[in-house]
Amino acid sequence: MLKTAFVAARDRQRLSEIASVLIGFGLNKAVDRLGLRNIPLIPRRTPRVDVTRLSQPERLRRAIETLGPTFIKFGQILASRPDLLSPIWTDELEKLHSQVKPIPWEMIGPQLESDLGAPPQEVFAEFDVNPIASASIAQVYRARLKTGEEVVVKVLRPGLKKVIEADLRLMGHGARIVESEWPEMARYQPQEQMKHLAAGINGELDLLNEARNCEMIAGIFEGRDDILIPKIHWEWCSERVLVQEFVHGVSPNDAAALRAMGADKKVLAQKGCDAFLRMALIEGVFHADPHPGNLLILPGNRIGFIDFGIVGRLSQKRRQQLLVLIGAMLKQDVDGLMATLLDWTGPTAPDLTKLEQSAQNFVQTHSSIPLNLGLVLTDFMTMARENDLAMPTDLAILFKGLVTADGVMRQLDPNFDLFSAAGPTVRASMRSVFSARALLKKAEALGTGLYGAASELPTLIHLLLVRLKQGKVTVEIELKGMDKLVRGIERGAARVAVGLVVAAFATQLAPRLIDLGTPVFVLIALAVSVVGIGWLVLLGRNR
């Protein structure tokens, strides 16, 4: 294909490297299915281990680590999607990490000096050239401003953007191939997944985006002393540099430090839960990865959030759906679970009998109190996968965040029940969703829509009558294994069509027109109903 040839020519070196790594780790089937076999390869990388001793998931994980940050990010996303992959794959991909060996100061120093406009030793009162953290995207250094404030300086790795942009182009092209050539993979929505990955990584490549995210979250907790979001020092920030307040805190995993601090773990668990749910359910924007490294405990039972490279967002509609799901889970409502899942997963055709049985098993499994939210959400996504349904990306991000947050809260308080702890926040969210003001806005929108529909109604009725006269209003009914009935339905299609239209008009539209109280609308409603019924009588006599 011409497009494939163009992509290969544009990024030939990187494509060859990807192919050689996949072949080197014994992932030959993937190479063949993606059409990479005939691409001229650079010298094959030799794995450090005997790949014949590795399982397929292990080979994939090792290959992803070798291919670098773009693939690592993609693997981490897949690790959080039990609705897409079975546990044997997600468990292995969870071992992926972004912590990598730091690059020497000699390689990153000149770039930082260029971005700051002067050597960092001149810009800051103190600057430690030894990084305190090194990830696949950036390295972090500790410094002190001339005003005395302690800060961290986050710096993008040099030369990374070009490689990542090539990876995203190639992976996007690969997603299109997978979706078109592998029908069984279509439900995974590979192109949609790639759009999400590209948006996330491009956001991380612009540290100004992280700074904006940080200030946006800080605005949510403005006026609260128990939640700390680091201050951004904008005068030194740029696309490749982020300077923010250094947060003095300890990890929720450090039991000894928490004891020495005199921390109340139960109080902290409740506060952490409230903070995360306030972001997600009320504000619709939340920290997408609240793991122990990004959530710090401070003296006075305070909590600090750091690292806002990626945030999740939920629309108002999605938050309402989430409240419905939580209610269905708490009420053990099988029908509610099925309806929510089918609504989220779009135009699919699952086996409803199988789905109902899965929902019943889910409810029975999680009928005890207190509920373990991590297990509940993981099993919910597993139920989706087993019924060939895929979760929307925004919800998958939220569920990953909730599972991670629940794990941290349980480390603080082993008896923590997020469902119970979420009560106040859920009630506040429901008040905002179903408040008089919110309902009034919906009523206004509905009125506007009805006014528009009423203005178009004469034209629509005229077109409907024309179509009826032309016999172009049809009903398709497919009943497998009942050929005789199908033939009978086909012979009476016109009668059925007219009957359905008249019935719908008489029971639904006509009463609404009459309720409007406008004489013209009332006459139209009565006239159309009488004409339609008369037409049915004539059709019945002529059969």
From TrEMBL:
<feature type="transmembrane region" description="Helical">
    <location>
        <begin position="520"/>
        <end position="539"/>
    </location>
</feature>
<keyword id="KW-0472">Membrane</keyword>
<protein>
    <submittedName>
        <fullName>Ubiquinone biosynthesis protein</fullName>
    </submittedName>
</protein>
<keyword id="KW-0812">Transmembrane</keyword>
<dbReference type="Pfam" id="PF03109">
    <property type="entry name" value="ABC1"/>
</dbReference>
<dbReference type="InterPro" id="IPR000719">
    <property type="entry name" value="Prot_kinase_dom"/>
</dbReference>
<dbReference type="InterPro" id="IPR050154">
    <property type="entry name" value="UbiB_kinase"/>
</dbReference>
<dbReference type="InterPro" id="IPR011009">
    <property type="entry name" value="Kinase-like_dom_sf"/>
</dbReference>
<keyword id="KW-0830">Ubiquinone</keyword>
<dbReference type="InterPro" id="IPR004147">
    <property type="entry name" value="ABC1_dom"/>
</dbReference>
<dbReference type="GO" id="GO:0004672">
    <property type="term" value="F:protein kinase activity"/>
</dbReference>
<dbReference type="GO" id="GO:0005524">
    <property type="term" value="F:ATP binding"/>
</dbReference>
<comment type="similarity">
    <text>Belongs to the protein kinase superfamily. ADCK protein kinase family.</text>
</comment>
<keyword id="KW-1133">Transmembrane helix</keyword>
<feature type="domain" description="Protein kinase">
    <location>
        <begin position="126"/>
        <end position="440"/>
    </location>
</feature>
